[in-house]
Amino acid sequence: MVEDKVIIVTGGGSGIGRATCDTLARNGAKVIVADLDAASAHVAAEAITAEGGVATAVKVDVADEASVEAMVAFAVATYGKLDGAVNNAGIEMSNKPVHELSAEEWRRVIDVDLSGVFFCVKHEVREMKKNGGAIVNTSSGAGLRGQINAVDYVAAKHGVQGITKAVATEVGAFGIRINSVNPGLIMTPMVRDRLMHDPVFDKALDGLRQRHHIGRFGEVQEVANAIMWLLSGQSSFVTGAPLLVDGGYCV
Ligand code: NAI
């Protein structure tokens, strides 16, 4: 499905990104594991290499355009081309109601979760215009519906849907497809951190679980499988689309 494809995964050192790197590598891709946390990116790349796969780690701050440009250049310098990208790095909402959210808190989330995706898409498309490619942006159920105490995150993730649709209209002619994956709740370190600090932890968890009609939270592997499909030729007529992997959360 993705054999010999060179694919960047941002946020590849943890959670959904890490599972995506492992899945792509197991299926023959050459993976650039990109993360702000350089140590976790190295651990992920070394684990792949130890299993006989091909992966290289690189540090990136997706909120910094120069850093993103350098990441794309590094991928091309390392493996000679760029076929795919998973713009997945992200941070959680500030977890405050709108009237208490400061401009700094707003900007922190927008810089990473929205501008970060813009910078990645911009530099990936520049490279992919040469030979075509496929891009997947990790959005969220919060990219399609509202969520309490999350105006920063919901705005950013809706913006990711906007980027995905707008860019799809520009790049199809170059053989580039761009889609989003929209996960429901997956118990990654990011989510666990937030819920652990929630004063009504058990109540919040039960309510959230009930909103997932399959009756449980998702697994990172279930999201990684969907991302790989969107990167592969199996989805060759799919572009500009959100793919919900959310156990029915958005129904
Ligand atoms: P995670 O916290 O396990 O992984 C996120 C990774 O992104 C970390 O390795 C972190 O170091 C990296 N990162 C953070 N800021 C960065 C930056 N500025 N530059 C580069 N890397 C940076 O979280 P998880 O859950 O795997 O999240 C991945 C994506 O999935 C995020 O975009 C998140 O919004 C999205 N998502 C997650 C859901 C969940 O329930 N876990 C649900 C819906 C969407």
From TrEMBL:
Keywords annotated in UniProt: NAD, Oxidoreductase
List, for all copies, the residue spans of the domain called Ketoreductase: 5-184
User: Is Oxidoreductase among this UniProt entry's keywords?
Assistant: yes
One molecular function GO term is:
oxidoreductase activity
Q: Which Gene3D superfamilies match?
A: NAD(P)-binding Rossmann-like Domain
One Pfam match: adh_short_C2
InterPro entries named among the record's database cross-references: KR_dom, NAD(P)-bd_dom_sf, Sc_DH/Rdtase_CS, SDR_fam
Report the sequence similarity comment from the record: Belongs to the short-chain dehydrogenases/reductases (SDR) family.
Name of this chain's protein: Short chain dehydrogenase
Q: Which organism is it from?
A: Novosphingobium colocasiae
